[in-house]
């Protein structure tokens, strides 16, 4: 699959303005491509359980851009014993008593595990900045705090993958309409979705600065056009799988010697008992 995601946008260039929002997936090959990617994730998780690698996957982006749908395509094939999805909402009163990164430290994966954050610590640079929940001095220093936070994770061996999905206002309104008219999807809509839409330009400015200043060699942003859900889904999964598998031997390990001996004896006994 062609790598069309953007990593390090040149300083002074607005990353969201450079996206090709007309990009579409090949409908004829979508299911086959999706299945192949999901098979890669199964192999990655099995390898991590053996090697002790761990990873953090961050999803940010516009409301209704397809974050949840992409995450479901990963979680549907993963063993929950080593895979966790954290949907991030506004901090609770108790969480507000502590540094904003505290609640994320507590949800980081252990060795051999993969954690997905459906929204993340970048709320400090997006909704908290735009809506005034954080003071300018607070969100201003968050650029450095977050870069250092992620650097510590990477230096400790954790792979950090960050995906940002972007859609146009017209496409978002269409998806809002679909959700409102479908009783089984209506729960996805909230007042905040409409409030955020009213400040589109402010959020876009904040997102562009965030993407420019927090995309690093150790934890780059993958910025994807998401007007076509299937296209964004495949590109995101491909980027994540590449990042998680880089330098990792995905070949299944040979069985433990004692396990093999026990298995062989059990099979031999079964054959004799026939």
Kindly report the oligomeric state of this protein.
single chain
- End-to-end distance, in Å? 51 Å
Could you name the CATH topology? Rossmann fold
Query: Quick one: CATH superfamily?
Result: P-loop containing nucleotide triphosphate hydrolases
Biggest sheet overview: 5 strands, parallel
| Strand and helix order | HEHEHEHHEHHHEHH
Number of domains: 1
Q: Name the poorly predicted regions.
A: 1-5
Can you put this structure into words, describing what you see?
The structure is a single chain. This protein is α/β, with parallel strands linked by helices. It has a single domain, classed as 3-Layer(aba) Sandwich (Rossmann fold). The protein has ten helices and five strands; from the N terminus they run αβαβαβααβαααβαα. A five-stranded parallel beta sheet has the order 2-3-1-4-5, with helices on both faces. α1 runs parallel beside α9 and α2 packs across α9. The radius of gyration is 21 Å and the shape is globular. The N terminus is likely disordered.
């Amino acid at each position: 699959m062609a790598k069309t995601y953007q990593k390090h946008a040149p300083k002074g260039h607005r990353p969201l303005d450079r996206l090709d929002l007309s990009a579409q997936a090949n409908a004829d090959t979508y299911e086959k491509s999706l299945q192949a990617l999901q098979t890669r994730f199964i192999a990655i998780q099995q390898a991590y359980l053996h090697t002790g690698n761990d990873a953090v996957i961050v999803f940010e982006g516009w409301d209704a851009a397809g974050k949840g749908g992409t995450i479901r395509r990963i979680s549907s094939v993963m063993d929950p014993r080593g895979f966790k999805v954290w949907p991030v909402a506004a901090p609770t009163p108790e969480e507000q008593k502590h540094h904003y990164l505290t609640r994320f430290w507590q949800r980081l994966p252990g060795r051999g595990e993969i954690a997905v954050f459906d929204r993340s610590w970048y709320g400090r640079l997006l909704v908290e900045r735009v809506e005034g929940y954080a003071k300018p001095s607070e969100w201003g220093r968050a650029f450095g705090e977050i870069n250092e936070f992620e650097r510590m994770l990477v230096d400790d061996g954790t792979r950090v993958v960050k995906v940002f999905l972007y859609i146009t206002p017209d496409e978002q309104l269409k998806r809002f309409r679909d959700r409102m008219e479908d009783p089984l999807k209506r729960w996805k809509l909230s007042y905040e979705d409409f409030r955020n839409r009213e400040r589109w330009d402010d959020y876009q400015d904040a997102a562009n600065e965030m993407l420019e200043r927090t995309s690093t060699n150790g934890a780059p942003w993958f910025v994807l056009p998401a007007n076509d859900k299937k296209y964004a889904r495949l590109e995101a999964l491909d980027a994540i799988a590449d990042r998680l598998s880089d330098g990792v031997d995905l070949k299944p390990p040979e069985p433990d010697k004692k396990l093999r001996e026990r298995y062989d004896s059990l099979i031999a006994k079964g054959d004799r008992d026939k």
